[in-house]
Write a structure and sequence with these properties.
Blueprint lengths: L1 H8 L2 H35 L10 E4 L10 H6 L3 E3 L1 H28 L11 H14 L1
Antiparallel strand pairs: 1-2
Helix pairs in contact: 2-4
Length: 137
């Protein structure tokens, strides 16, 4: 059984998939940082100093009464919140990842070269073939 597992785990597809998952996770953390730390702060500044990570609705107040200054403060008070700002950040992250994957696949498709279709046989070549075949007979 150990031998079968080793053969399974060392197959090319499994190793390639593992590498892809690890690189994907690392890429995800880079994109999250890009969205949270680079893209959203200027957008929030343009929209009037809005911090998207702290945009939320209080659905039910916690032990300490509202207003809450942040999602963390609301959670610490035990409030139930709808964190739409974090959702906006996640959507922007998804769009960046989807665009990056699109560009990667597009580049890979352009790099693939398919063999050109065979050229059509001209009338001269057909005539020469007929002459050759006649001479063989």
């Amino acid at each position: 059984m150990l031998k079968e597992f080793k053969a399974f785990a060392m197959r090319g597809n499994v190793v390639d998939m593992a590498v892809g998952i690890i690189i994907g996770a690392a890429f995800g953390s880079i994109v999250k940082s890009l969205v949270d730390d680079v893209i959203m702060p200027p957008i929030g500044l343009v929209l009037g100093n809005v911090d998207f990570s702290n945009l939320f609705f209080v659905l039910k107040e916690g032990a300490v009464a509202a207003p809450y200054t942040s999602v963390a403060a609301a959670k610490a008070a035990g409030a139930v919140t709808l964190n739409y700002g974090l959702f906006v950040n996640a959507v922007v992250s998804f769009m960046i990842v989807a665009f990056a994957v699109f560009m990667l696949i597009r580049t890979i498709n352009r790099l693939r070269t398919e063999p050109p279709p065979p050229a059509a046989v001209t009338e001269d070549v057909l005539l020469l073939r007929e002459i050759r075949d006649s001479l063989k007979k």
